[in-house]
Amino acid sequence: MDKANTYKDLIEEILIRGKRYRDPDFSARKLAEALGVSSFQLSRIIKATYGISYADIVHSFRIQDAMRHLKDKRFAPYSIDDIGLMVGFRNRQSFFSAFKKVSGTTPEKYRLM
Question: Does pTM top 0.85 for this prediction?
Fold first, then answer.
């Protein structure tokens, strides 16, 4: 396995399986420390592996999670804002902005689809 795949596996282990993307305080610096690389190296690794920035990849994981929650009947009692907080967004505005950027629609409209 080459280094790029190794880093991809490690990043996904930490961010996805470890659900660190849900932690609004888990920064690129903390991920770099967990991987034993500099922040600059991490930025290059993520760009080469995913073609996007750290913030964009974290938002993508959060939105995918939010989409599952919005369609899951068990989460029907939760407000849109609650779901945004559950998946790691600090506020409604950043959640709605990221959701629209990734999905092309608002969380309310997506929930009703």
Answer: yes
